[in-house]
Amino acid sequence: MLQWPHIFCTRKLGGTKSMALGPASSRFSISDFSCSRTLYLCSLLFLVLSLLARSACGIYCDEDDCYELLGVSQNANGSEIKKAYYKLSLKYHPDKNPDPESRKLFVKIANAYEILKDEATREQYDYAILHPEEVFYNTARYYHAYYGYKTDPRAVLLGLLLVVSALQYLNQWSRYTQALNMVKKTPAYKNRLRALELERNGLVTNKKKASRQMDKKVEEELSNELQLQIQGAEKPTLWNIFAVQFILLPYAVGKKLLRKFCWFWRYHIMKDPLTWDDASYLTQACLKVPRDTWQNMGNQPTTLLLFGLF
């Protein structure tokens, strides 16, 4: 079971009023949304692999056979392949034959020759013919042979980082949306909406009117005035994705090193007493309380903890 200690409702408008829905109303099984999230990611991965997956021979010469394009057998040697290519180029080269269809055919012939003239790529092509069921392995060998040494590793790293960041953001947003919908079904959340409606319209004396179902439009307006803070399924932001964190990594490392240096200088060299903020940070670190949870505890519990420890 996954339990969020508190789910805070905060008014977006009208000051600093807040309330916690409490642990009793915020217990949800992780299987309620983790299964659908896993299914979503698997479907997305399957879609990507399906787009990449073509027939074993199709990744080399499309739907044609490279040997048949050159008019040679699979046992032909290098000189026979070269001779067949030059013979066909005299017939189908655009300079020799202006027919548009001949131009298209010559492009295929030239591609087949580029594949078969090299021993390494020819061996890969022959392997793909013998093992058409190994689609992903043959595809990986093809792209590694043709693009592995031509692609800038920095571009590959950047592309991978962007793809991972996009998947991370979609995953976090899906998780947050599902958790938010589950919270809105709890009695505590509905009671908070009812209290907010009474606060806006004044106390209702008519019991029938008070017990009526809240209008959907009014419920949506009141819901927009509440800002839910769900621990364990926070609203995703661009600052938390891998790409942004990677860019800000030098700044984050420098800031942390500067903090450690200032801490060492202030409390180990100068022997100064702990400030309130530093004592709060030290207490949080000693108790291993997450920063968000510590901040949501408010001033009174943290004050009691600080006086108890120091």
Brief summary:
By secondary structure, the protein is mostly helical.
State the CATH architecture of one domain. Answer: Orthogonal Bundle
The class by helix and strand makeup works out as mainly alpha
What spatial order of strands do you see in the largest sheet? 3-2-5
Give the overall silhouette: elongated
Strand fraction equals 5-15%
Q: Helicity level, as a percent range?
A: 55-70%
**CATH homologous superfamily grouping of one domain:** DnaJ domain
Order of H and E elements: EEEEHHHHHHHHHHHEHHHHH
What is the name of the CATH class of one domain? Mainly Alpha
Number of helices: 16
Return the average pLDDT rounded to an integer. Answer: 75
Low-confidence stretches: 1-33, 204-212
- Rg over CA atoms, rounded to whole Å, is 33 Å
What's the end-to-end separation, in Å? 35 Å
User: Would you report the number of β strands?
Assistant: 5
CATH topology of one domain: Helix Hairpins
Largest sheet: 3 strands, antiparallel
GO biological process, one term: protein folding
Function: May play a role in protein folding in the endoplasmic reticulum.
Subcellular location: Endoplasmic reticulum membrane
Pfam families: DnaJ
